[in-house]
Amino acid sequence: MAEKPKLLSTVLGSEQVPPHLARGVIEERLRSAILDGRLPPGTAVRQQELATLFGVSRMPVREALRQLEAQSLLQVVMHKGAVVAPLIGEDAVDTYALRVLLETEALRQSIPSLDADDIAQARSYIRQLENETRHAEIGRLNRLFHMALYSKAKNQKLLRMIEIELNEEERFLRFHLSSMGLGKLTQDDHIALVDAASDKLVDEAIKLLEEHLNHAARTIRNYLDKQSGN
């Protein structure tokens, strides 16, 4: 009887990668497979298996896994090693509280430097979101919309921290958008937010962003309560 193909090789394929490109290629392949659900939560991601698949040493594999762990896409479990992280945990509401702190500051820094091209880019993401029905693409566009408004913040470390949190939300939205009941209201929030940013109304934009994120936190709290039967 033929051996059943292992999930990593089935999902990622097998190819020889130049050593200097290995870390980036492996990170991106794994990230895409985790985000779109081909590698479900709990899947073991073994260094040696990846090294064999891509024809490289364990070093670039280890570096790629560290990056994905930093993005909350992988977690290290005792006696099992790296596994794909859960879609969302009980700390999700705390994550939104953190996002309020980080993103309002990024917006405060960014708005004075946003130009017409930045605003046009943000509005283009809204137009795409209004017409998009694929949950995977909605998650991606939502992340790009927010980052477009924060892009001119001077604190680059702040932006990196925000992108990590948005990556986590993007993954969750891909799977549970319909269950959470998010729809047109989200785009109304986005439209009001970009209008305020365009008019350089910093305080108003920050208030709108806080309300938008707090609404999402309440929605996720309700979703988690339903999932646990509370």
Automatic annotation (TrEMBL):
<dbReference type="InterPro" id="IPR036390">
    <property type="entry name" value="WH_DNA-bd_sf"/>
</dbReference>
<dbReference type="InterPro" id="IPR000524">
    <property type="entry name" value="Tscrpt_reg_HTH_GntR"/>
</dbReference>
<keyword id="KW-0804">Transcription</keyword>
<keyword id="KW-0805">Transcription regulation</keyword>
<dbReference type="InterPro" id="IPR036388">
    <property type="entry name" value="WH-like_DNA-bd_sf"/>
</dbReference>
<dbReference type="InterPro" id="IPR008920">
    <property type="entry name" value="TF_FadR/GntR_C"/>
</dbReference>
<dbReference type="Pfam" id="PF07729">
    <property type="entry name" value="FCD"/>
</dbReference>
<dbReference type="GO" id="GO:0003700">
    <property type="term" value="F:DNA-binding transcription factor activity"/>
</dbReference>
<protein>
    <submittedName>
        <fullName>GntR family transcriptional regulator</fullName>
    </submittedName>
</protein>
<dbReference type="Pfam" id="PF00392">
    <property type="entry name" value="GntR"/>
</dbReference>
<dbReference type="InterPro" id="IPR011711">
    <property type="entry name" value="GntR_C"/>
</dbReference>
<keyword id="KW-0238">DNA-binding</keyword>
<feature type="domain" description="HTH gntR-type">
    <location>
        <begin position="20"/>
        <end position="87"/>
    </location>
</feature>
<dbReference type="GO" id="GO:0003677">
    <property type="term" value="F:DNA binding"/>
</dbReference>
